[in-house]
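Regression report. Comparing outputs from two consecutive submissions.

Submission 1:
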Amino acid sequence: MLIPILSVRDVTEAIGFYTGVLDFRVAFAWPEQRSIYAGLVRGEDELHLALAAEHGRHGHGSAVVLCDDVDALFASFKAKGLALPSRAGSPVHEAPLDQSWGTREVYIDDPSGNTLVFQQRRQL
């Protein structure tokens, strides 16, 4: 199993976004008060968040999350308050799109600027 670690500017803020909008739940947060590191899970997916050591050293990460129905998942995120578009001029940040490499994807940026690519692969 590979577990990505995303650098964030505020762990509490990131936990709120990932649990409130993207259906993750907190597996652990350390320390409990004013956490600097946390582990989140969503089904079989796991993601860790680490407080950026320096200002401006966050938001450069990305991860792909495989899913069965990216359109339904995206609709559920919007219903939970996902703000759109998160990146002006990027259609794949506004709604799921069919990509030329055989996937359907939507990109969602967290409050620190990290990008999760929710990807549905075509059945072959």
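Submission 2:
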Amino acid sequence: MPPKRNQPAAAAAPKTAPKRRSKLAKENNITPDQEAEIAEAFALFSSTDDSKHGVILTSELRRCLVALNAPPANQDEMNEILDTVDPEKTGRVAYEHFVAIAALKLNAKNDEDDEEAQQEEIARAYRLFTGGEDRPIQLGDLKRVAKELREEVPDGVLRDMVREATGGGLGGVGKEEFEGVMKRAGVFG
């Protein structure tokens, strides 16, 4: 039997240093990835200038924001953005000013996405209580869920939960009331 050959040592995966946020990213509350995305979009439309990043023409600002998937909602918002980034009406937007606007737009978009995800999660939780039916949550639903979770909750406590959600009545708990209870309990935003 031939002697075993030594296997070559596996090449170590190159370590990439974690990306650090620049001062501009910190000031505008964006991640290094978001900053890179903003810089890439800006570079697509920029012309060279004395500064490191150049400038973009105000006529290209909308297209640049669209490239970031953060377009202005309407012409009024676009006019407000233009007044902010080019108050002297030079027709040019510096990188630092663009980063500030792009960061605001991206953060607002993320907030909207978070709100949509939260609303879907609330709807999903509500459907769990109602068994997927479009109706208010009843006392029986709470009993069933407690049993499924193997929790022994006295009927009086369950009735108190319904009363709290409905403002005193023992009727069913609607979606808005359910959302309010979940938010007050700290489960959702």
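Expected: both submissions complete independently.
Actual: both completed, but the second showed a warning that disappeared on reload.
Relevant detail on submission 2: The chain is about 55% helix and 5% strand.
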